[in-house]
Amino acid sequence: MSVRNFLLKIGFLDLNQRRMSLCVQESEEKMIIWAFENGLYDIRLAAVHYFISTKSSRSISILHIAMNDEIEIVSQEAMLGLENVEISSQLIKEISEKRQFWIDENVYREGRRNRDHLKTSPLTESKERGSKKSRDNAPSMLKKPMNGGKWF
């Protein structure tokens, strides 16, 4: 393990695209697997691209894990990489189910963006500013004595 990899693993250095590209150029597979497990989505995407290009037996298992990633682009790229390799019918079924999941997820997100139901909500009415209300109540508050209880 190099010093750079050690510093990345203990968190002294940040894992970014440049450092990830160095790992890919040097073909440090253990470091790329660690980066895939611990990196942000762009790092995971770079790791997926690396494993698509290597096409080893270990890359199929990593791509299978990446297929279930919570970020859509990482999952889609992993599915594309798995389709280019000879895989079992079970994995083909999982890929089709995952594609359907992402289609349903996008439909759900699109429905949430449609905010027509919020127009009838009472919370969308404009509210009075506190300063205007206080200014209107100021003359009546000044007419009352200070120690006479409530001012409002």
Question: Can you put this structure into words, describing what you see?
Answer:
The chain has 152 residues and is an all-alpha fold. It has one domain (3-114). It is built from 8 helices and no strands. It has helices at 3-10, 17-25, 29-38, 41-54, 57-67, 72-83, 89-113, 130-143. Helix 3 (29-38) packs antiparallel against helix 4 and helix 5 (57-67) runs antiparallel to helix 6 (72-83). It starts with a helix and ends in a 9-residue tail after the last helix. 18% of the residues are buried. The model has no long low-confidence stretch (mean pLDDT 79).
Number of helices: 8
Number of domains: 1
Question: How much is the average pLDDT?
Answer: 79
Measured as a percent range, the helix fraction is 55-70%
CA radius of gyration: 28 Å
Main sheet record: none
| Gap between N and C termini | 73 Å
Shape designation: elongated
- DSSP strand (E) fraction? under 5%
Give me the secondary-structure category.
mainly alpha
- The count of strands amounts to 0
Uncertain segments: none
